[in-house]
Design a protein that fits this description.
The chain has 371 residues and is of the alpha+beta class. It has six helices and 21 strands. The strands form four sheets. Strands 1, 6, 7, 8, 9, 17, 18, 20 and 21 form a nine-stranded mixed beta sheet that branches. Helix 1 packs parallel to helix 6.
Length: 371
């Protein structure tokens, strides 16, 4: 069923990935003393329930263990001394479930196409001809950020100065193939099912994941288990941007350190990532009386090693939500009871979205956002 959009809102979060949803959830928790930790906004346990708690990472030559990194030894520093093995899609579905429980409206098939100055803030135009005016627009719409592009914010490698979009897939740089796959059972008995394992000689990683509720192999297929694999591509090698099942099978077979065959029954997603970095020239821009902020991959990108993008992005989203909430509470104290519900607009085409929270019209100072 189609839902109507507000014509005006105080805070607009553009981006339906984990970073944008983390920011929206934090804004929803305005009454909490939010810190940069998922547990403070009630997300830690749901994520733990949907992933595999691991002690860490083990590095191998071929099959022999070279070194094991045990994160459980961090128990004095955190209540969660574990490495959580979970797919990004499961993170997103967990966050979306939380937003729905909080009464957030989910509206599909919306696309941001323009931003302009308005006397009451920033007017964000959508492809269907509608628009929303916001005091704050938070761009959490990924490395190809529409918000960043419309704001004319420069985005390039801080070391080489090369723009992020220039020559996006050359064979002259290191690339990594990431794929979520179903492997036929039984697997080699020494393959680790409770930790990430890097086979250094063959440049391949195996990470066990919980099976998704949907999208598995067809009925009647052999027993399988679900894995994330990463394979380093040698410099000078041409690799498809979205490798096929046959391509992934060939690469896994070529790099397999065990004598037992590894049969890839199905891939749910596969992509080649260029090992590159970029940082926005600024994370904050004024547009008329409104404010534009960038968070997550819209603000910086780096190699996918260790899940840094997702982990840092969640910290970004919650931190920015915290600062925005603090600023909002200071300025609208005494009228918090008039705050209207959160609206959430998802743009499928650009993996972007608009999440908004409406407040009484107030001009916000910008001291928190200057770089």
């Amino acid at each position: 069923m189609s839902m109507s959009l507000p014509t005006e809102t105080q805070i607009l979060v553009v981006g339906a990935g984990p970073n944008g949803m983390a920011c929206a959830i934090t804004l929803k928790a305005l009454g909490l003393e939010v810190t940069i930790e998922l547990d403070t906004v009630g997300l830690a346990q749901p994520l733990l329930d949907n992933g595999i708690s691991s002690k860490g990472v083990t590095f191998h030559g071929d099959t022999e263990t070279l070194i094991a990194v045990d994160v459980s030894k961090l128990y004095k520093l955190t209540r969660f001394p574990t490495m959580l093995l979970i797919s990004q899609s499961d993170v997103e579905s967990t966050f979306e479930d939380r937003l729905k429980r909080e009464g957030v409206n989910v509206i599909w098939n919306k696309k941001v196409v323009g931003m302009a100055s308005n006397v009451r803030g920033v007017e964000v135009s959508l492809e269907d001809g509608s628009s929303v005016v916001a005091q704050y627009v938070i761009g959490a719409d990924g490395s190809q950020s529409t918000v960043r592009r419309l704001s004319k914010v420069d985005f390039r490698d801080p070391d080489t100065g090369v723009p992020y979009d220039a020559n996006a897939f050359p064979s002259s740089v290191l690339q990594i193939i990431l794929a979520d796959i179903y492997l036929e059972e039984p697997l080699p008995p020494t393959i680790l099912r409770d930790a990430v394992s890097w086979q250094l000689n063959n440049r391949i990683l195996f990470c066990p994941l919980l099976r998704p509720a949907r999208g598995g192999p067809e009925p009647g297929a052999p027993p399988t288990s679900y894995w994330r694999t990463a394979m380093v591509v040698p410099i000078g090698t041409t690799t498809p941007q979205h490798p096929s099942l046959e391509y992934i099978q060939a690469e896994v077979a070529k790099r397999n350190p065990w004598k037992q065959r590894l049969h890839v029954v199905k891939t749910t997603q596969a992509a080649t990532y260029r090992v590159r970095s970029a940082v926005a020239s600024t994370f904050f821009e004024k547009l008329g009386t409104g404010n534009i902020l960038l968070v997550g991959d819209a603000a910086r990108v780096h190699p996918p090693t260790g899940g840094q993008g997702l982990n840092l992005g969640l910290c970004n989203g919650i931190s920015l939500g915290r600062a925005t909430a603090r600023e909002t509470r200071q300025l609208v104290s005494g009228v918090a009871g008039n705050i209207s519900p959160v609206h959430y607009i998802v743009n499928v085409a650009l993996t972007a979205a608009v999440a908004s929270r409406t407040y009484p019209a107030t001009r916000f100072p910008t001291r928190y956002w200057r770089q």
